[in-house]
Amino acid sequence: MLTPFTSQDQIDDLAAMSREYEKQEALRMTNQSPGAGATSNNGVGSSRQPTEPYINEIIPVDPNRARRRPGEQDLRSSR
Predict the structure, then answer these.
(1) Which residues are CB-neighbours of 75 under 8 A, at least 6 positions away?
(2) Each residue's pLDDT tens digit, 20-30
(3) Phi, psi (rounded to 5 degrees) for 46
(4) CB contact set of 36 (below 8 Å; sequence gap of 6+)
(5) Using CA atoms, how far apart are residues 27 and 30, in angstroms rounded to an integer?
(6) Structure pTM?
(7) Going by C-beta distance under 8 Å and a sequence separation of 6 or more, which residues neighbour residue 51?
(8) Which residue has the higher pLDDT, 38 or 27?
């Protein structure tokens, strides 16, 4: 039978998950994959497979472009 987590167990678990997340983000920001250190230098496995796209990819925005306000009618869809 499992015992419920205590508050301290939950805090410790969240702290560990936060450290792991920060470590992965630091690797991602330096353009390294988490398993980059696991490949050998003999050429086997040295080709990098494309990873899944990063969901927080920066998207350029034109600041001069007019924006629609919530509740405004889209003229293109009303025709």
Answers:
(1) none
(2) 999 998 888 88
(3) -85, -15
(4) 27
(5) 5
(6) 0.36
(7) 33
(8) 27
Q: How far apart are alpha carbons 70 and 58 in whole angstroms?
A: 23
Smallest CA-to-CA distance from 34 within 18, 22, 16 is with 22
Beta-carbon-side half-sphere exposure of residue 38 (alpha carbons within 13 Å): 4
% of the chain exceeding 70 in pLDDT: 56
Taking the C-alpha atoms of residue 21 and residue 79, their distance in angstroms, rounded to an integer, is: 48
Residue 63 tokens read as 């600041």
Q: In this structure, which long-range contacts are made by residues 66-74, counting pairs with CB atoms below 8 Å and at least 24 apart in sequence?
A: none
Which residues, other chains included, contact 54 with Cβ-Cβ below 8 Å and sequence gap of 6+? 28
What count of other Cβ atoms lies within 10 Å of the Cβ of residue 13? 11
Answer for the pair 33, 27: CB distance below 8 angstroms, yes or no.
yes
